[in-house]
Amino acid sequence: MLAQERYEQILSILNSEGSVKVSKLTKLFNVSIETIRRDLEYLEKEGHLERVYGGAVLNKVGNNQLKFENREKEFTNEKIEVANIAARYVAEGQSLAMDASTTNLEIAKVLKTKFKKLTILTNSLAIANELLDMDKYTIILTGGVLKNDEFSLVGDITLKYIENFNINTAFISVSGVSLKEGLTDFIFEHLQIQKKFIEISQNVIVLADSSKFDSVSLLKVCNLDEVNMIITDSKIKKNVLEKYLNSGIEIVNQ
Question: Model-level pTM?
């Protein structure tokens, strides 16, 4: 088993149980105590857990995992720029899947000024609330367990519900874009939802402001060749943009 797979399973256990013992992990993964200790050290440095005697406990807010309302205040101009570009790839009457992100919230604000009729599938209460006054929009909430700090719905119920739909375009927001590691994010509960949205959508557009490039977060969403396009902002460095374009990645930034 790869280290990345162990990281994801450790976080899954912590999210469901709140704590985990080293002895349990060594048996589960059939690896040495030293291997598990290194795994926990890495996850602690990333801000996802706190090591305690004999194991670890969940750190709800990691170093790069600011709460939704705090992230909403970061890179605001860049997100608005991304949102306005994204709206160009929407047509009246289409169906969209939008994950629970602050960038998608900005897109929702733009969509309501440009389109009279859309179908929006989302796990975001913030997006649904933003679009409440659009009486010709069909807003489909995924159902699931409320993740309070993200104003989102998550869990197995959410994943099962998403499987019922065929969507024109998915807007997926990520925290890391890398030629080597692909698209990555940091909220474990949202990861499988992002993957499901990608599965059910004919067209997948990734949203990543310029600060996200050449950055890798803990959890892999997918490879770059699994999406149709990345939308970013005009502040992306020319050499970074050219590097990705020369690798065959379609990026729009204006």
Answer: 0.76
